[in-house]
User: What shape does this take?
Amino acid sequence: MTKSVPAAAKGAPVPAPGVPGVVRAAAVASVAAVAGLVLALLAGGAAAEQVIPGLGDAGAVTRWGLPFARTVMDLSSALTVGALLAAVVLLPMNAARPGRRARAAAAKEAGDAPSPLSADAISYLRAASWLSAAWAVAAGTTLVFTVADVLGQPVLDVLTGNELSSYIGSLPQGNALMFVVLLAVVVALLAWTTTTPGAAFGLLALAAVALLPPPLTGHSASAANHEVAVTGVALHVVAIAPWVGGLAMTGVHALTGRAGLGVMASRFSRMALWCYVVVGASGLVNVVARLPDPAELVTTSYGRLATAKIIAFAVLGVFGWWHRERTIPAIEAGKPRAFARLATVEAAIMAATMGLAVALSRSAPPAPTTDESAVATQLGYAMPPHVTALRLLTLGRFDLFFGVLVVVLGGLYLAGIVRLRRRGDHWPMPRAAAWFVGLLTIVAVTQTGVARYAPILFSVHMAQHMVLNMLTPIFLVAGAPITLALRALKPAAVRGDRGPREWLTIALHSRYVRFIAHPAVATIIFVASTFALYFTPLFETLMRDHLGHIAMMVHFLASGCLFFWVLIGVDPAPYKLPYPGRLLLLFVTMPFHAFFGIALMNISQALARGWYTGVHPDWGTSILKDQHTGGAIAWAFGEVPTFIVLIILAFQWFFDDQRQARRQDRRADRAAARGDGDPADDELAAYNARLARLARRDEAAED
Assistant: This one.
C-alpha cells in the first residue's frame, strides 16, 4: 500500500482556503472596524456627548447608530469600487475566459450578446451589484440618523414625521446623502446586467463620483482654509476607496484560488503605491488645514485621533512594502496563501483605520482662536488689499487642485519624453515647449494674486476665464499629449488584455468622443456654455461653492481644449477638417466671444449680485462698473488667441503642403524605379487622350 504524497511535497501549489477563508477574513475585518470605531468614539468623546439643557437629544441609538451606519457606508462603497476595479482594471481580460462555444452558449441561455469580459470579471460585477445595494441601504440609514442627530429627535419621531423630506431639500448633508443613494442604486441595477468593459468602466467612474458628496459637506467645507481642505479631502477619499477595495478583492481572489492572481496582485501593488502617496499627501494637507498648530496633535481629542490615524497609515505602508518584496514573489512561486494571510491582516488594519476616520469625522476640530470676518468665512481668507499689477503677480494663494493638476500633467509628459528617448525615439522640442507654456499659464492664473482677487472682482475673474478657456488650451493642444501617450505607453503584455494604451485607444474610438469631437458640437459647447453660465443663476451658485468654482474653471479649460483640438490639434481625432474649413470655423466662432463681451459691457444689472455684494471690497469700484470692465476684457482678449491660431494654422498648412509634395515625389520615384514612367506624365497623357476623343466625336457629329 503506497502512501500519498502531499501536494506541497510534489512542488504543486497549495490549494487556496476557498469560501470559508473569505468568510473568516470578512469577519476579522468587520471586528477590526467595529473595535476601531468604538475605541475612537470613546477616546474622542463623541460617544458621550454632553446634553445641553433646553436642547433636544437624539438619544443613544442615534449617537451610536450614526457612526456605525457611516462606517458600513464607507466600507461598502470601497468594496464596490474594488469589485469594479477588479472587473475592468486589475484582472487580465483573458483570465479564465471560457471558450467561444461556452461563451455563446452562456449568452444564448442568458439572452444576451457574447461577453468580452472573463467569467471572473462578470462575477466581480455581480458582486459589485450586491455591494452597491448595501451601499445604498447604508447611505439611506445614515441619512435617517443624521436627520435625528441634527434635529435632536429620536429616530422613530423622524421616521413618523415629515422632518426627513424637509431636511433632504434644505441642508447640504441631506442632498449629499440622497445623491449617494440614487447613484448607488443606479450602479447596483446596471452592474447586474453589464457585460462589456466600457460599460463597467463607466460604472466605476459613477461609483467614484458617488464617493465625494458626504465628506465634502463635513468639516472640510467649514475649515478656515476650506479651499485646500475641500480639495484635500476629495483626493483623500478618491485614493482610499480603490486602495481598500482593491486589496479586499485581490485577497478574495487569492482565498478562492482563481486564475490570474499574479497579474492582479502586481497591478494592485502598483496602484496601491500611488494611492498611498496621494492618501498621505492629502491627509497631511487636511491635518494642517484643521490643526495649524502641531501641538494640537497631542493636546486635543481631535488631534490625538488624527495622530492615531497617522500611525495606522504608517503601519499600512510597511504592509505595502512587505507585499512588494515578499508576497508577490511568493505568488509567482505558486504560494498564494502567503498573500492571502498578509492581505487579511492588512485589510483588518484598513477597516479599523476607516472606523477611526468615521470617529474622527464625528469629533469637532479645535475652534479657531481668532474671530473670522464674514468675508473670510465665505472666501476662506481675509480681504486682500487694493489690487495692483504687482499684487496680482506676487500676492499668491496656493490652489491645491490646480497645483496637483499641473504637477501630474507635467510629470506624465516628462515621463513620456524620457521613455521615448531611452528607446532611441525623438520627440519634437517645440511640442514640449508648447505643453509647458500651457501649464505655466495655468499656474499664472491659479497660484498667483489672480486667484486671490478673482472671487471678489469680476474683471479679474474674467481675465482668469479668458486665459483658461482661450489661451491655455492652444498650447496644451499644440503639445500633442495624446500622440505622446500612444507612442510612449507600452501595449498590453498579453494579446487581448487591456492596459492604459488600449483604454486610450478605445476612448478615442468611442461614440461619446466621436460625438463631442464633432466640429459643430465642440463649437456649440465652446460658445453656448459661456452664455448659459453667466446669464443664468448658475454663475452665482458656482461662485458660492468651492467645488462649484473648481468645476467652472475645469469646464473652461476642457471646453477650450476640445474646441482647439478640433481646430489645430495634431493628435488623432474622429474628424479632420481641411485647412480652409478650419479658417472658416475660427472666423465664425471668435465673433461670438466679442458679442459676449459687448453684452457684458452694456448690462444694466449686476451678475451674481448676492455673491459680489457679500465680498465687495471697500477699495473697489461699483460692482456694475467692474463687470463692465470684465466685459471689455472679454471683448479685447479674443484678438490674442485668434492671432496665435492663425500663425499655427499657417505653419501647419505650409508643412502639410511640403509633406504632400514629398509624398508625391516618393511616389513618382517608386513608379520610375518600376519602369511605370512619371505619374504626372501619365495624367497628362490621359488628359490629352480624352481631349482627342472629344475632338473625334465632334468631327463625327459634324459629318
Q: What stands out?
A: The chain has a mean pLDDT of 80. The chain has 33 helices and no strands. Residues 219-363 form one domain. The chain has four domains: 56-97+115-217, 219-363, 389-637, 661-702.
